[in-house]
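Regression check, D-malate case 242:
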Amino acid sequence: MHIDLLMNSSGTNELFYRDKNVVVIDVLRASTSIITALNNGAREVIPVASVENAVKVSSSLFGDVVLRCGEREGKIIPGFNLGNSPFEYSADTVTNKSIIFTSTNGSLAMVNAKFARKIVVAGFVNITTVVKYLKELNEDFVIVCAGKEHHFCIEDTVCGGMIIDILEKNEMDTTRTDAAQAAHILYKSFKRSLFKMVRESDHGRYLKSIGFEKDLKACATVDSIPVLPMIDKGVVKLKREE
Ligand code: MLT
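Current build output:
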């Protein structure tokens, strides 16, 4: 099993993903919010790259079953139903809803990967479930960190490194690119203080400054939501146990 890792998704074109298995990670907060929404009963999440597309796609669906969701600069987009805090995606709010979701980095990484063979959405909250799936799949895969505005961000890379670490502990025979190897080393140096790493990250400090401090704990909690969201034909749904 060969593992590659992109520290952000810029610089790849859609053809890069063709026939690859992809794990998309946006710990703060797109992955975590999408995983929360689906676990709380949302019918599906449709990630789109731009606000304009979110409006267009949602207008083509029935109004009472659709929520327009997402953020720019971490804040709810004017006229949208929900922002990007996982706490907004409660069962009361999202059950049976189709969620049209756009965020600065996370939804972009998901849309970019649309030609991939399999696409899984991962965060700390569902990491063991994702690794179990990868182990059963037993094929090469690429971890795509959403990053922050075309740059590296530590929390996504550490989460990618944790996937590699758990696979190693499961005695999977893996080879890695330099980037995947670096992510694994980074994880090992932060594994005893994941929450501190998230809290002190660039985006963690930014989210705290705009009032979302409690999201950090939720996003850094390992295995709190053990579900497997997969993207098929541009739509994220939970994969049920077979
Ligand atoms: C993103 O996609 O850039 C993030 O999820 C931003 C955020 O924390 O809302």
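Comparison notes: DSSP finds ten helices and eleven strands in the chain. Residues 154-169 form the longest helix (16 residues). No diff flagged against the previous build.
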